Amino acid sequence: MALRRMISRRGTPSIIYSDNGTNFRGADAELKRSLFELNSDKLVSDGLVRGIQWQFIPPGAPEMGGAWERMIRTVKTALKVVLKERAPRPETLLTLLLEVEALVNSRPITHVSTDPNYPEALTPNHFLLGPSCNSPPLGKYDNSVLCLRKQWRIAQRLADMFWGRWIKEYLPTLLPRQKWTNEERSFQVGDFVILVETNLERGSWRHGVVSAVHPGHDGRVRVVEVRTRTGILRRPVTRVALLSPVECSAG
Q: What is the mean pLDDT of each run of 10 residues along the chain (251 residues)?
């Protein structure tokens, strides 16, 4: 059912990558069995058949699923901390997980060149929900609501707690792990970046375009100025993650 929901929100994929979990293996077998039972000639004639290739990574090699495995780990770690010694009602837990889904899919992954001064961030939610995926303003919740009986308030507070923990788990994964002595690409004017800051309100991402770079005595860029919607911010490169490099034009 999860696979069906993915296909119905994102469209028909050409390749699906996953680990070897029994749920995925079972879904693969079920889909093959269902396709075998269909009248393939009619489907072909109607142009409804689209080949989907399902690629399984080798068993016991989760590192080969790098991107999604890291994301799963950050989410599981944050949820484990938030839900420790807590047992929310099923409907409250479901609401929390939906909030978590929206937060994870709101992360900037690159930019859309709609505004030369401040390109819009492209997120997974754009693919899932379309361009009009902005969430409504959120209220203010503290730990006192966890003692109340209003389950929606409890769910919102748990979502706040998840965000605070998850953002601390996720943002550092965007930063390069190389040492200063290694040769790596320096930031350039025009780069689209995200600021690694963990004190933001739930669902907020501070990103922008590098407007100036400041090298150190060794010639390597140590500080950058980033043009955001709220103004220009000066940050060390150790707190800035590159999402999309500047494109160099020929000529």
A: 63 74 80 67 53 71 74 91 88 91 89 64 80 59 70 87 92 68 74 88 89 91 91 92 59 32
CA distances from 42 to 38, 39, 145, 225 (A): 9, 6, 57, 60
pTM of the predicted model over 0.70 = yes
57 and 19 Cβ atoms separated by less than 8 Å: yes
For the residues of the chain, what is the DSSP string, one character each?
-HHHHHHHHH---SEEEE---HHHHHHHHHHHHHHHHS-HHHHHHTT-----EEEEPPTT-GGGGHHHHHHHHHHHHHHHHHTTT----HHHHHHHHHHHHHHHTTS--EEETT-SSSPEEE-HHHHHH-S--PPPPP----GGGGGSS-HHHHHHHHHHHHHHHHHHHHGGGGS----TTS--PPP-TT-EEEE--S-PPTT---EEEEEEEEE-TTSSEEEEEEEETTEEEEEEGGGEEEEEPPPPPP-
Of 160, 153, 10, the closest CA to residue 99 belongs to: 160
